[in-house]
Amino acid sequence: MTDGVELRFWAAVQSIAASAGRRLATFYLMDTSLNRNGWRVTDRAIEDALPTLLGKPLGCIPGYRINHVHEPLVVGQWVEFEKPDGNAFATAEITDGVAWERVSSGEWGPVSVVIKAHRVVCSRCGGDITAGPDEHVLDGEGHEIVESFSFSRVDFVADPAYPQAGLITLGQLSEAKTPRGFPLAAAAIPFEETAKAPEGIAWDADAAESRIRRWAGGPEKERIRWSDYRRAFAWYDRSEPDEFGSYKLPHHDIVEGRLSVVWSGVAAAMQALLGARGGVDIPAGDRRGVYVHLSGHYRQFGRVPPEYHVSRSTSVDGAQGPPKPEEKRERKEMEAQVAELQHEVETLKAENTELRERLEGIEAERRRQLVEQTLEARLRAGLAGDRKAEAERLKSLDGAALILLGEDAERVAERLGKATAGGPKAKYSAYAKSGFDAAVEDARMRLFGYSREAEG
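Given the sequence above, the corresponding structure tokens read:
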């Protein structure tokens, strides 16, 4: 096994709890779908890697800032994991009080998982590309598949970059629990940007499912790799994951030996979700997740997905019929609430505009004063000649640079004053020269991060 290549994967917090004096937070970490960085991991890789997460640090930037840093502040460690249906969950014990407060309040949540990849292959040709991407990955025909990895650490970050995280029931967790108590993801299958079949290819759902079964190891049910088979559908019944009848809304086929998304299959699945041809019998709580999955394929083909709506041709239990009177009444009440909220939003927008203009005026005045103070300091220190030209130059700098230049100018002026005070202003005064040089070198260190070596 090699030292590995460092990769990062983004996720978000799902639940927190304090138990027996221990502060625990459970996170949804990753699954087998393609992430926004253009690589994915296999189900077996997750299975093998999760034990390496135990005891690894949970960190943030020193000073309780969030995002990656080379040497993070450790605020906890990982104590437990679970992998239901190919989705990786893990629990960390947060040992830092400040970090716990920020997680509990909702200020912190998203995390980025840093892994070491030990074996990476190309999705197009299957070649080993652990040392670096091949031409298929570079030209976009393929992507990286991590077949073996280990966890290095996990850091809190500002914004989650894992797009599929929102597709797991859009943040609404099922009441079902895993054996260890972790919440299961909903049965809407996460979107994966698979290879595209030619747009003109005909769609035959029965024939496609037959080919997918053979591709996934079958057609015998006992030999099916269900984590691979699942990738061809938008929904499945997680209570019976090893039954063909549990999988609905297929939209992939096997084209030239690869799992490929078929445009006409995507369109047919979306129409069924929205009520066409009698609709599809899936729980109401999973429909939005399925819609977002299929919308991802619409965008993959450069198409705009239809507007989401709840099918009126099929109820939750599959019975057909028009809206009931109580449903009409609820709809009117909801429309009234929406109108009221829209009015509140417009009012807040107007107030925010006024506040923003006031803040911009305050900021402009603060900046004018900062430029003026910095200019005066540099003139006193003899670091600027033409007042007008120097003022124009300072106006182009940001606030941090102005503060830095002003502080350096004050330091130069102070050292020059000490060098000349109480003594003759001799042309060859060694004391005056060393004081000035020291001030200049100090400024150099602050501005550029290095000092100039003495010449000669």
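Residues 161-186, 312-322, 422-435, 444-456 have pLDDT under 50 and may be disordered. Try to locate this feature in the token string yourself.
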